[in-house]
């Protein structure tokens, strides 16, 4: 049969002819998502093999932001590495600073005054609020709710960034912690502003949850998607909210009890299904606990110095030895492994990046889901490429 | 939480004659580590994971350390009796010997089930050049997958038994291992051949006078 004016298409002779049906149902398609793709939260690439729309294989490719942070850390003094830790997970510079300061303090046996411990808890919980708020906004952005939820989230983020700016001088690259305390003290006005933010944050969360938590579209896109079994999560070294969404009770604020955390009562929210929705809910509930910790810490913060007067800042040298120290960052366990030989630089400076290690299970989560779901799953793992690539 | 010595004894009770030694850590944290021989490391790691008293189910951190050749002062131990009967050189306490360099892989283990840790494992390669193969612990802890790839990429330790040992941060064509202490960054590592580079010699042939001004490619 021919369309008028055109000759009928005759199949070429030989055995190479295949019907259209075979081509549709037989071939796998390899899609390279990224490195420049808005859903990858940075320069990140997923090489996905698709059967139709279903993912049958997925390999993450990264390293585009690699600058050998660890080598830089080995070639500079202990103090000079502090600003570099801001650039790891650039949403959470305060917890990165704390993790690094704590590692050096444990390496050298440095004590920290009480007020600084409280201030660190306050700043870490503000960072947790900031990170989880942004992440909830990004999750909805990834699942197609373009714009509005992200703007709501970023409106609250700005308030926290204003607090960071007035305390440390910088919105994101805070460079605030020192070995033996904090760089500057918080004024009563600052503590009051932080208290006002903590008081108002619950209302924002109520509003956010009213829009989203029971939202049918959000539930349809996230429930049952990207399930992570608890055994795999532990074996793969997954930490933070992703681990707890799978029902594993492992929060370093409770387990290690570092800093002033043993003095605060808070609960550790756990998920039951380990899917994307649980990871969202765990973060929302963690924010509510963070508000409680914040208010308690702001109410009970003691007076005193924020810097140990015996601490040595310039010309700091650690005694020979090594230490691995970790804290509960918003994304998971951020740790530092330092080897000192007594010199002004660490002999070995290693960052344990939670974002990178949480990516180990990305392929397991995506297999069998559609390519559109990989975007939501990746968003729910919560990575920052500055930390993955280092 | 058991001390490193107790864990060593427990390993030796389970694997008699295994190469296990405690490496002391003089720092205030006193995180002593266990140095395992490469031959039985995977079995011992599996034992540490599954033993009901330890249950180290969470391998948090895997990293490499590059130790160069170094001169170490010989400990002022009493001179060993010389089999040839030569006089012992006990007076020369300042003798140094060359300790050959090696690459070290450090694992920090915790228990999520029992909430204790860390237990630090160390594996060492024979040298820094050709004996750089160690057993992979990825079959035991999945979290080693990317981190061992990183050690392979940046330090050049080859992990036998790793399911997918490729470079992870550097690009695949990269040759060296940047985290090694003696790594020298090439001046032109971003250089890549372009048509321009091929055209310059041709231009030199066509315009010999201009060749003196053209910079060497």
Topology:
The complex is a heterodimer of chains A (390) and B (217).
Chain A: H1 20-26, E1 29-33, E2 45-51, E3 54-61, H2 69-75, H3 81-86, H4 93-108, H5 114-142, H6 148-168, E4 177-178, E5 181-182, H7 188-212, H8 216-222, H9 230-235, H10 241-245, H11 252-255, H12 276-300, E6 321-329, E7 332-340, E8 348-352, H13 354-358, H14 362-366, H15 371-381, H16 385-389
Antiparallel strand pairs in A: 1-2, 2-3, 4-5, 6-7, 7-8
Helix pairs in contact in A: 4-5, 5-6, 5-12, 5-15, 6-7, 7-12
Chain B: H1 4-14, E1 20-23, E2 33-36, H2 41-50, E3 58-67, E4 70-73, E5 96-99, E6 102-111, E7 116-124, E8 133-135, H3 144-155, E9 158-160, H4 195-206, H5 208-211
Parallel strand pairs in B: 2-7, 8-9
Antiparallel strand pairs in B: 1-2, 3-6, 4-5, 6-7
Describe the model.
The complex is a heterodimer of chains A (390) and B (217). Helix content of chain A is 47%, strand content 12%. By secondary structure, chain A is of the alpha+beta class. Chain A has helices spanning 20-26, 69-75, 81-86, 93-108, 114-142, 148-168, 188-212, 216-222, 230-235, 241-245, 252-255, 276-300, 354-358, 362-366, 371-381, 385-389; strands at residues 29-33, 45-51, 54-61, 177-178, 181-182, 321-329, 332-340, 348-352. Chain A folds into two domains: 21-60, no CATH class; 66-389, Orthogonal Bundle (Cytochrome-c3 Hydrogenase, chain B). Chain B is built from five helices and nine strands; from the N terminus they run H-E-E-H-E-E-E-E-E-E-H-E-H-H. Residues 78-83 and 85-91 of chain B have low confidence and may be disordered. The radius of gyration of chain B is 25 Å and the shape is elongated. Chain B has 217 residues and is an alpha/beta fold. Helices cover 23% and strands 24% of the residues of chain B. Chain A binds chain B through residues 62-63, 66, 68, 70-71, 106-109, 232, 234-239, 248, 250, 255, 318-326, 333, 335, 337, 339-340, 347-348, 350, 352, 356-357, 359-361, 389-390, and chain B through 25-29, 31, 57-61, 63, 65, 106, 108, 112, 115, 118, 120, 141-143, 145-147, 150, 154, 167-171, 178-179.
């Amino acid at each position: 049969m021919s369309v008028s004016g055109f000759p009928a298409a005759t199949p070429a002779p030989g055995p190479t002819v295949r019907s259209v049906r075979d081509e549709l149902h037989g071939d796998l398609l390899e899609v390279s998502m990224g490195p420049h793709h808005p859903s990858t939260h940075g320069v990140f690439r997923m090489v996905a093999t698709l059967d139709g729309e279903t993912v049958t294989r997925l390999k993450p490719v990264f390293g585009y932001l690699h600058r050998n942070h660890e080598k830089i850390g080995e070639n500079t003094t202990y103090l000079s590495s502090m600003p570099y830790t801001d650039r790891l997970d650039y949403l959470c510079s305060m917890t990165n600073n704390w993790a690094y300061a704590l590692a050096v303090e444990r390496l050298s046996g440095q004590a920290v005054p009480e007020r600084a411990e409280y201030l660190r808890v306050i700043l870490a919980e503000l960072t947790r609020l900031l990170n989880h708020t942004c992440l909830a906004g990004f999750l909805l952005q990834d699942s197609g709710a373009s714009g509005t939820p992200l703007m709501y989230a970023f409106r609250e983020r700005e308030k926290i960034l204003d607090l960071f700016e007035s305390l440390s001088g910088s919105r994101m690259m805070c460079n605030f912690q020192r070995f033996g305390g904090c760089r500057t003290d918080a004024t009563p006005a600052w503590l009051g502003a932080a208290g006002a933010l903590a008081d108002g944050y619950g209302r924002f969360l109520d509003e956010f949850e009213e829009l989203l938590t029971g939202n049918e579209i959000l539930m349809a896109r996230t429930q049952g998607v990207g399930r992570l079994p608890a055994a795999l999560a532990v074996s793969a070294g997954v930490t933070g909210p992703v681990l707890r969404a799978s029902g594993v009770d492992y929060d370093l604020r409770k387990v290690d009890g570092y800093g002033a955390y043993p003095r605060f009562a808070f609960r550790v929210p756990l998920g039951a299904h380990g899917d994307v929705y649980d990871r969202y809910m765990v973060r929302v509930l963690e924010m509510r606990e963070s508000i409680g910790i914040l208010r308690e810490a702001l109410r009970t913060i003691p007076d005193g110095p924020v810097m140990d007067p015996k601490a040595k800042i310039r010309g700091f040298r650690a005694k020979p030895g090594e230490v691995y120290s970790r804290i509960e960052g918003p994304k998971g366990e951020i740790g530092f492994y330092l080897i000192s030989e007594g010199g002004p630089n660490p002999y070995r400076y290693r960052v344990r990046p939670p974002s990178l290690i949480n990516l180990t299970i990305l392929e397991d989560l995506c297999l069998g889901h559609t390519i559109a779901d990989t975007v939501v799953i990746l968003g729910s793992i919560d990575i920052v490429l500055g930390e993955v690539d280092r | 939480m058991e001390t490193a010595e107790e864990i060593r004894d427990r390993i030796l009770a389970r694997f008699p004659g295994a190469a296990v030694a405690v490496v002391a850590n003089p720092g205030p944290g006193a995180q002593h580590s266990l140095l395992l021989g490469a031959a039985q490391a995977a079995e011992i790691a599996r034992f540490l994971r599954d033993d009901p008293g330890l249950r180290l189910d969470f391998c948090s951190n895997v990293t490499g350390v590059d130790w160069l050749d170094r001169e170490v002062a010989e400990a002022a131990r009493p001179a060993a009796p010389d089999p040839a009967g030569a006089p012992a050189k006990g007076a020369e306490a300042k003798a140094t010997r060359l300790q050959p360099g090696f690459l070290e892989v450090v694992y920090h283990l915790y228990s999520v089930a029992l909430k204790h840790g860390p237990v630090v494992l160390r594996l060492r390669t024979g040298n820094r050049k050709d004996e750089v193969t160690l057993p992979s612990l990825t079959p035991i802890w999945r979290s080693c997958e990317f981190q061992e790839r990183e050690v392979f990429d940046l330090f050049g330790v080859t992990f036998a038994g790793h399911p997918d040992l490729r470079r992870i941060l550097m690009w695949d064509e990269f040759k060296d291992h940047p985290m090694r202490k003696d790594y020298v960054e090439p001046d032109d590592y971003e250089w890549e051949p372009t048509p321009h580079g091929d055209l310059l010699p041709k231009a030199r042939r066509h315009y010999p006078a201009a060749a003196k001004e053209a910079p060497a490619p």
